[in-house]
Amino acid sequence: MSESLHVVCPHCHTTNRVKRDDLVKTPDCGSCHQPLFTAHPVPLNETSFAKHVERSQIPLLVDFWAPWCGPCRTMAPAFEQAAAQLEPHVRLVKVNTDEAQALGARMNIRSIPTLALFAGGKEIARQAGAMAAGDIVRWTRSNLR
Ligand code: ZN
Question: Is the pTM of this model over 0.85?
Answer without folding.
Answer: yes
